[in-house]
Specification:
two-stranded parallel sheet; 13% strand; Undecaprenyl pyrophosphate synthetase; 7 helices; three-stranded parallel sheet; alpha/beta
């Protein structure tokens, strides 16, 4: 979800307002995904690289994340949405970590759309922590070397056995920026110049239509 800051800059308003408008775009997208039957929606809310931003902006983002989570959690529950949060959550303060834990627990038994929030997440971090888990399993003699394969790696990732069908990136940037590197192996990529606060139901439908028109061969002949 890229472009909040640039959206604000083009209007000569604080970046925080861009992030607030970005939250409104999230509401629209989540609601529309429910309406059209999307099974899993993953939102890249905060990357490990975002820690390079100013302390002031990072503080805003964390406070906004906490406020949004508290405000939206009951609505998500009523919509039967299951919440999952992936990433290294240790950088967040105890209030935010507690809110994340409580929200995930509250929605854990819901059977509707799965909403995944990637927070302080990076694809390289994800693969690295999966590698450490496998090394620990091997060191304890629980597996043999020849048992380490793609299925085992996937089982140790933050999202287990969840490949990505369609990756949508807003704001005109054409790169994946360290997002779900393993799961994106055969994803369809869609790039739009629309800044995230302006991303709405119409923009999502355009992305899905583009996806539906593609021939997914997975290395085969189709």
């Amino acid at each position: 979800m890229d472009g909040n800051g640039r959206w604000a800059e083009t209007r000569s308003i604080p970046k925080l307002e861009g992030h607030r408008q970005g939250v409104k775009a999230v509401r629209k997208v989540v609601r529309h995904c429910l309406e059209i039957g999307i099974e899993t929606l993953t939102l890249f809310a905060y990357s490990t690289e975002n820690n390079k931003r100013t302390e002031e902006e990072i503080g805003w983002l964390f406070k906004l994340f906490l406020a949004t989570l508290r405000l939206e959690i009951n609505k998500l529950n009523k919509a039967n949405i299951c919440l999952e949060v992936i990433g290294d959550l240790s950088v967040f303060d105890s209030k935010l970590q507690g809110a994340i834990h409580n929200g995930v627990q509250l929605l854990s038994s819901n059977t509707g759309m799965k909403l995944v929030i990637a927070a302080n997440y990076g694809g390289q971090w994800d693969i690295s922590q999966a590698t450490k888990r496998i090394a620990e399993i091997y060191a304890h003699g629980e597996i043999d070397l020849d048992e380490i394969d793609e299925n085992l790696v996937e089982s140790c990732l933050s999202l287990q056995h969840d490949s990505v069908d369609l990756l949508i990136r807003s704001s005109g940037e054409q790169r994946i920026s360290n997002f779900m590197l393993w799961q994106l192996a055969y994803s369809e990529l869609y790039f739009t110049n629309t800044l995230w606060p302006d991303f709405d139901e119409y923009e999502l439908d355009k992305a899905i239509q583009s996806y539906q028109e593609r021939d997914r061969r997975f290395g085969g002949r189709g």
